[in-house]
């Protein structure tokens, strides 16, 4: 019965699927404009596709290359202050919101880059690969400030620790707030990304969960097999090194209504939402994260929700009334 309701819901709402879009609907390839229209990056075709609030295609722009309005190895798309940012290996290609080329911005160094529209946030790994710096930079790159340094203990000599990787930062909907977690204890710092200033620090009491060594060994072997398959290791570690306890924070994520959710461990291999905060750092009830195995809420606009659907190994975007969203999400979890 639940599956039938779910199928009928899909038929009754506006949906675009892989016939129209070449598998680019993962959240990092989705950007919402100020007027509710949205942009989809297709890395394979080197294109940006602009859609209306009715999910009809307005235009397509971009191309392969390094010239104005071109990109070759794109990895993400953002919309900020009337500009579309397409990230390439060494630079950002910017477009006006109507698709006309605007400018190209070359990255000053190798890092994971996050534009905010008025500044930049970079996640830079040290040359020794032992720590990661979270760096704030001004729009022209002339000013920079280290906001946080996080040790990366994934590799310690000849030992491998799968729980030693730093937790990626989380950005609010407008990218004007950024949260970074201390992976060893419950401590979350929230920054104003436009100025690089610390707004507040969130702390909570958490239960320490002893590390499951058997699960850790299985996870480490799988990860090593994957890294080896991609030739990502210079040499294979001779042993595994595990902590005594799981990190109290497994992941941070902002919802579409800008509530920050801290995820903790439910059991090995599974995490659950533990705490939620608003932009001021005040504790708020957990509404549930925007992520689900089948759905992810990409945006909310004018009474509608735009939802990412994974069905039969294909990817879609569905538009539904905001009031119907809880039922659709509940149905997806019980399929």
Automatic annotation (TrEMBL):
Entry protein name: Uncharacterized protein
Which source organism? Acanthopleuribacter pedis
């Amino acid at each position: 019965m639940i599956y039938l309701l779910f199928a009928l819901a899909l038929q009754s709402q506006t949906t675009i699927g892989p016939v129209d879009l070449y598998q680019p609907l993962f959240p990092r390839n989705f950007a919402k404009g100020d007027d509710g229209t949205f942009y989809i990056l297709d890395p394979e075709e080197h294109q940006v596709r602009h859609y209306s609030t009715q999910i009809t295609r307005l235009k397509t722009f971009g191309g392969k290359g390094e010239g104005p309005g071109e990109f070759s190895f794109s990895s993400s798309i953002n919309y900020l202050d009337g500009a579309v940012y397409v990230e390439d290996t060494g630079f950002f290609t910017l477009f006006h919101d109507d698709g006309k080329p605007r400018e190209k911005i070359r990255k000053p160094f190798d890092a994971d880059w996050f534009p905010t529209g008025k500044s930049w946030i970079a996640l830079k790994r040290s040359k020794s690969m032992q720590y990661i710096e979270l760096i704030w930079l001004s729009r022209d790159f002339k000013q920079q400030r280290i906001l946080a340094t996080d040790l990366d203990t994934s590799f310690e000599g000849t030992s491998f620790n799968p729980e030693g990787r730093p937790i990626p930062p989380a950005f609010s909907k407008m990218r004007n707030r950024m949260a970074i977690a201390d992976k060893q204890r419950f401590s979350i710092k929230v920054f104003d990304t436009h100025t690089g200033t610390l707004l507040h620090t969130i702390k909570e009491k958490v239960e320490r969960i002893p590390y499951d060594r058997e699960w850790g060994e299985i996870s480490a072997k799988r990860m090593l097999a994957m890294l080896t398959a991609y030739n990502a290791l210079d040499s294979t570690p001779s042993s595994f090194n595990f902590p005594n306890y799981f990190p109290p924070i497994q992941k941070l994520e902002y919802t579409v209504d800008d509530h920050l959710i801290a995820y903790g461990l439910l059991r090995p291999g599974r995490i659950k939402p533990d705490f939620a905060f608003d932009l001021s750092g005040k504790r708020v009830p957990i509404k549930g994260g925007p992520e689900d195995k089948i759905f992810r809420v990409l945006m909310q606009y004018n009474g509608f929700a735009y939802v990412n659907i994974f069905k039969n190994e294909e990817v879609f975007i569905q538009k539904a009334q905001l009031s119907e969203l809880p039922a659709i999400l509940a149905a997806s979890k019980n399929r």
